[in-house]
Automatic annotation (TrEMBL):
One Pfam family, short name: CofC
Domain of life from the UniProt record: Bacteria
Gene designation per UniProt: cofC
Name under which the protein is recorded: 2-phospho-L-lactate guanylyltransferase
Key words, A-Z: GTP-binding, Nucleotide-binding, Nucleotidyltransferase, Transferase
MF terms (GO), sorted A to Z: nucleotidyltransferase activity
SUPFAM superfamilies reported for this sequence: Nucleotide-diphospho-sugar transferases (SSF53448)
Amino acid sequence: MPAPAPGYVVLLPVKPPARGKSRLVGIESHERADLARSFALDTAESCLAASGVGAVLVITDDSFFAADVARLGAAVIPDGVSGDLNATLVQGSLEARRRWPELRPAALCGDLPALRSADLDAALTAASGHPAAYVEDAAGGGTTLYTAPHDLFSPSFGPGSAAAHREGGAHPLAGELHSLRHDVDTLEDLAAVRGLGLGPRTTLASVRVGTPG
């Protein structure tokens, strides 16, 4: 499948790593923060390498993480509505429209440490044929990617998000898309995606917490 022309801006919301990934239990708080930061940086780098992505806009209130991800080439804005993911994404889409009016917004989870650019490109290519589209997570019921033109952009992340996106008129994208469907909330999730190939930062962070990838 040919890669799409750069027609998307990926919106990547990232909680401050020190507060994120509370379900990574059984490790120290600094190790949890290290993993959360690594997940997000590996996700951002894969997005930046995708042929269909013209820009990546990270939304975060963590200044240290913002500097790290900006060095990769992503744009960064603060989260003006912290605590409401969907409102954060709408805020991001408005800023993206101002900066890159020709790019269609695509909201993506920031915890896809095994993400492959080819899977993202395949999803974006398929999504371009629908007014709105989403990718359901491997566990079923959740969403890892949602995209729609600016005038239709209405994300519904949270419990039951796949059904909410479908009921809102978004098309579920088929295909394996393994690395795009596997977000990581727990150490068990991390173990499950090792076979897909973890990103370099997550691999190192996994070794540091004693869970080699």
